[in-house]
Design goal:
By secondary structure, the protein is of the alpha/beta class. Helices cover 29% and strands 21% of the residues. Helix 5 runs parallel beside helix 8.
Length: 229
């Protein structure tokens, strides 16, 4: 079975109603990004950060996977599908995808605020008095700006062994995730699905740009892949 690796970004979740990370003013729902997505912001105002992610967690429970998510899950019938996502929601898992790697953390998990942290499943609000087994404050299990991306090496290994690579709903501007596609074998086809695709530089692979949103573009991709396999 051929291996299909899919890199997904905010665009695919936006079609389910998840608001994107930044709007045109560089804000995240009225907040300066660094105030709610950096460790410095966390130290400065834990209450603000907790409230922000509590709102995101509640919103996630109100939305559903779209046809893009569902079609990627369906492709597991014909391909060994691995999804590497920059998104912190669980919409891929809700749709039925079984191999999902979250580069930037997960909204429905929390972790201790110290180096040897525990990661816990969490679906309700997170509060200042919520602590781990050692009495350490719990924080969102999100990779904030300036923090290391623990899953990066695993993601690179997955991309290196791909037979097909698809990039869906991402501007390809956020590193290190944006650099992952350059680890693909040079002879494999790459598909880029985005309604407003950016130019991809220095890519040594056969590239097909599909200027569609995920709900239209992923079913289109599925038909192409079924012919190619």
């Amino acid at each position: 079975m051929k291996k299909l690796v899919v890199l997904t970004g905010a665009g695919i979740s936006a079609e389910s109603g998840i608001k994107t990370f930044r709007d045109a003013n560089g804000l995240w729902e009225g907040h300066d990004v660094m105030a709610v997505a950096s460790y410095e912001g966390w130290l400065k105002n834990k209450t603000l950060v907790l409230d922000f992610y509590n709102q995101r967690r509640r919103q996630l429970q109100e939305v559903k996977p779209n046809l893009g998510h569902i079609t990627l899950a369906e492709l597991e019938q014909d391909f060994d599908v691995h999804i590497i996502t920059q998104n912190v929601d669980n919409l891929h898992e809700q749709a039925g995808s079984n191999k999902v790697l979250h580069l930037h953390g997960e909204l429905l998990k929390v972790r201790s605020d110290h180096p040897q942290f525990e990661v816990l499943d969490w679906t309700s609000d997170l509060n200042l008095d919520d602590v781990d087994s050692k009495g350490k404050q719990l924080r969102p299990h999100i990779v904030w700006f300036g923090e290391a991306v623990p899953a990066l090496e695993e993601a690179i290994s997955i991309v290196e062994t791909a037979d097909y690579l698809a990039v869906i709903g991402t501007s390809l501007q956020v590193y290190p995730a944006a650099g992952l596609m350059h680890y693909a074998k040079r002879n494999i086809p790459v598909f880029y699905i985005d309604p407003k695709p950016v130019t991809i530089y220095d890519l040594q692979n056969p590239l097909e740009v599909i200027p569609m949103n995920a709900t239209d573009g992923v079913p289109f991709l599925k038909q192409k892949l079924l012919v190619l396999r």
